[in-house]
Write a structure and sequence with these properties.
Number of helices: 6
Strand order of the largest sheet: 7-4-6-5-9-8
Bound molecules: adenosine monophosphate, magnesium ion
Number of strands: 25
Mean pLDDT: 95
Low-confidence stretches: 1-5
Distance between the termini: 48 Å
Shape: elongated
Length: about 425
């Protein structure tokens, strides 16, 4: 029998609140040592290991920001004035001499201003016949000149250490002549997928078997966030096989993540194995979805490789990975720990729920007619239904004590959208 969305849970109030769990995880970890030098184009999503300084001013010369004419004119030009045209400056082909007072040249966008030039007249304001230039319309105060150090002054810091590199960082570094940079080593992540019932997608299912999906989802999630899984194994719920896999992954990786087998059922071996092979820092979260969760260390007398035992239910695995694994990986890589941005939204419709645990509900973001932000919660929020993650824009933070919520209720939500630049 399925339980209705509004029925209370048959569990005691137990487990670590998410904030406290995140605090404990981050307090237990240190950034990894190591870095490598990469060509700029390969550095997207990596973390800078040291500051990058401009070697020269950029653009390095005063440039026109309009197609038009450059003048040497001590005073603001008046309508009806005219000037002799003495040459031309194009991008890559500067006018080679100093402009004398009263002289003008043709100039194109991005081309260097000759010495002596005081302003550019956009071509829309003038008439020119190749020999002379006349001002037809009033000019404003804008000289239409880009400063020689508009993008950067020589020696200026272009980028600090510990920045996750986006397209704008890379583009700006290229514009300042930087061709390669030193980035921090990526954490090696070992992924252990557990479950007797799992078969790979693409193969036929026997009775009671399901297609394995956590591996696919988690690898893709980490890739999306600029992180990679170094090794991935699928292992049945057998203690000997799990023990061997955990030890091997712990020896070869900076961090080990498992999914499944971390509850208190007969085939849930992860927590006892973590206790046997290392240490359990905490077990169980006060969170829905995501109650079964273990954090600790593998090997080295309990001080070894950090270990995250994620739940088996796919939505719970994805959400706890976002909440706890992602900040841990950011810290290990030496990047700023950046939780998802939070914003206040209003429920677009009534929401039936049984109070019990704080919940992270998947929702779509809509903008109402007056610009108000609305959260649309659609379909079942069961932690087994991956469909609830598809197209989700928000994780709605619903406090434990709240029961059924009326449309219009204001809640905090985490934004599931990537930065572009
Ligand atoms: P467990 O915590 O191992 O009892 O798993 C909880 C639920 O998630 C069970 O219904 C499992 O069949 C399911 N599950 C566990 N691992 C996976 C996986 N890798 N892919 C898809 N479903 C899974
Ligand atoms: Mg299992």
């Amino acid at each position: 029998m399925s339980t209705s969305a509004a029925s209370p849970e048959p569990y005691p109030r137990e487990g670590l609140p998410l904030e406290e769990a995140r605090r404990q995880v981050l307090a237990a970890l240190m950034p990894l040592a190591g870095s490598e030098r990469l060509p700029l184009q390969q550095a997207l999503g990596r973390v800078s290991a040291e500051p990058v300084l401009a070697t020269e001013a950029v653009p390095g010369f005063r440039a026109s920001i309009m197609d038009g004419y450059a003048l040497a004119a001590a005073s603001v030009p008046q309508v009806g004035h005219s000037w002799p045209l003495v040459g031309r400056s194009a991008p890559g082909a500067p006018y080679p001499r100093t402009l004398a007072e009263g002289e003008a040249i043709r100039i194109l966008t991005g081309a260097p201003l000759p010495e002596g030039a005081t302003r550019v007249l956009p071509q829309e304001l003038v008439a020119a016949d190749g020999e002379r230039l006349s001002l037809m319309r009033e000019v404003g105060p804008n000289p239409w000149i880009r400063a020689a150090d508009e993008e950067a002054a020589a020696g200026q810091e272009l980028l600090g250490a510990g920045v996750r590199l986006g397209p704008a960082d890379l583009g700006r570094l290229a514009s300042c002549g930087v061709a390669e940079l030193v980035v921090r080593r990526r954490p090696r992540v070992g992924l252990l997928i557990t479950g007797d019932e799992l078969v790979p997608a693409g193969s036929a299912r026997g009775p009671g078997q399901i297609w394995e999906s956590n591996g696919t989802l988690l690898v893709a999630l980490l890739e999306r966030l600029g992180l990679a899984v170094a090794e991935r194994r699928v292992v049945a719920d057998q203690p000997a096989a799990l023990r061997a896999a955990l030890l091997e992954l712990a020896a070869g990786c900076d961090l080990v993540v498992s999914t499944g087998g971390v509850s208190a059922g007969d085939s849930d071996w992860i927590r006892p194995l973590l206790a046997e092979l290392g240490s359990v820092a905490f077990w169980k979260l006060f969170l829905k979805p995501g109650r079964p969760f273990a954090f600790g260390r593998l090997g080295d007398g309990g001080a070894g490789t950090p270990f995250f035992g994620l739940p088996g239910n796919p939505v719970a695995a994805a959400i706890t990975a976002l909440q706890l694994l992602l900040p841990a990986l950011q810290l290990l890589e030496g990047a700023p720990v950046q939780p998802l941005p939070r914003l206040k939204v209003r429920l677009a419709a009534d929401l039936k729920r049984g109070s019990g645990r704080p919940e992270l509900a998947r929702a779509r973001l809509q903008v109402g007619p007056d610009g108000e932000l609305l959260a649309l919660v659609g379909g079942s929020q069961a932690s087994s239904r991956i469909g609830s993650l598809q197209g989700a824009d928000l994780l709605l933070e619903i406090p434990a004590e709240l029961g059924t919520l009326a449309a219009g209720t204001e809640l905090w939500a985490q934004l599931l959208r990537l930065p572009i630049f």
